[in-house]
Specification:
The protein is an alpha/beta fold. It is built from 15 helices and 11 strands. Strands 5-4-3-6-7-11-8-10-9 form a 9-stranded mixed beta sheet, with helices on both faces. Strands 1-2 form a two-stranded antiparallel sheet.
Amino acid sequence: MPRLSPSYLRRAHSLSPLLPLLLRSCRDLPTARNELRWLREHVLAGPCSKSLYELCVERSKGKPLQYILGNQPFGDINVLCEPGVLIPRPETEAFTTHIADLLAREETENPPPSNLRVLDLCTGTGCIPLLLHSLLSSHLPNLSITGIDISHTAICLAAKNLSWNVNHNNLAAIANDQIKFVRADLLTPKVALGASRISQPYDILISNPPYVSPKAYRRETSRSVRDWEPKLALVPFQGDVRDGELSSNNGDSFYPVLFSKAIEVNAKILLLEVADLAQAARVAKLATGTKRWDGIEIWRDWVCVGRSPCERLNIEGKLISVLGEGNGRAVICWRAEGGGWIGRT
């Protein structure tokens, strides 16, 4: 990380004595000024047990802003954030919004059932189920969403987020009945999963799994991420995985588990977050090899209904569409009536 020049620090101090503290984490003045404004608003909104200076010191030591403020906007909802649970990212918000937009299209000839059942694996804060409900509940009145995570801390926070957003009118009261969060280990035997409702039929399986390779975790993630966010949610298990290119060394080892779960719950749509286009291509190759899916697409960071750039990758002799702009961010697979629900044939 390049050092900041003394003149840059003096300029920051002339604007506010607190800005040099924030620059240790922000590294540029516009971002530091924004963060100072948010921190000041947080203190003024009260009650806050710490002074603005104390909060700036915490931020200077790399503590994520979301953990200091206690929340992160995510679409039309507000996600409470606490140490020990992964902070929601804007890319996750983007693909969650896009799948909801596809499912909610009014002009479709094959709409999803009103009692659509969605399973979110590795749910973390619960941000995906909560945002899906906020976007789909008016279109699908009997929607049902279950979020699963191995972390007790995550499940408790997800339940708190559900209650908080209902109480603050970000979600309809019926969300309390239509969203459930359950603690379970996806790697335990099938018989153990039945009690946690993970083996019931679901129409859609969606997941933002651990997908960062050990090497990328060490070299590419920020100090703030390594020091504060749970490694369990970022780096997949380091088991003995020998499935061609899919291995724990490149962060792919969780995806075969998710494809198996999609078969187990009879999902019609499978949507998986990935790190980049290279990983997306490997996951699409895995999907092709299952011989189960009628269609596969790769979504980049920013993809919009009806107006996204499109290219194609040749994967195992099959042309896979790559939609949107930015880096590869998600792989979506569909079969049977699932394709009609999102306007695919």
